[in-house]
Amino acid sequence: MKQSKLIGVILLVLGGVLLYFGFNATGSFAEEVSESFTGKYSDETMAYLIGGAISGVLGLVLLIKK
After folding, report:
1. Residue 15 zone, left/alpha/beta (φ > 0; ψ -120 to 50; rest)
2. Contact assessment for residue 12 and residue 60, using Cβ atoms and an 8 Å cutoff
3. Domain encompassing residue 40
4. Over the chain (66 residues), what is each successive 10-residue block's mean pLDDT?
5. Longest CA pairwise span in the chain (Å)
């Protein structure tokens, strides 16, 4: 397996894990209360969601790229 493909798999898995934690955090009681007052998620939750999305897309690009 080429090194770029291995890095792609690692980034894809890392992205999935970060998105999992981010989506779980959005459903927590404290996060829902905070969102109801401020209208947005906390910085930590947004970091999980954005980091997971970026990591997942980069991993997918590395896997698909020839």
Report:
1. alpha
2. yes
3. 3-64
4. 90 96 86 81 88 96 88
5. 49
What pLDDT score was predicted for residue 36?
A: 80
Cα 32 from Cα 21, distance rounded (Å): 15
Into how many domains does the chain fold?
1
Q: How many residues make up the chain in this entry?
A: 66
Q: Please tell me the distance from the alpha carbon of residue 50 to that of residue 17, in angstroms, as a whole number.
A: 12
Show the tokens assigned to 33. Answer: 């209360």
**Global pTM?**
0.83
Token readout for 48 is 């999980």
Q: Tokens for 39?
A: 């209208």
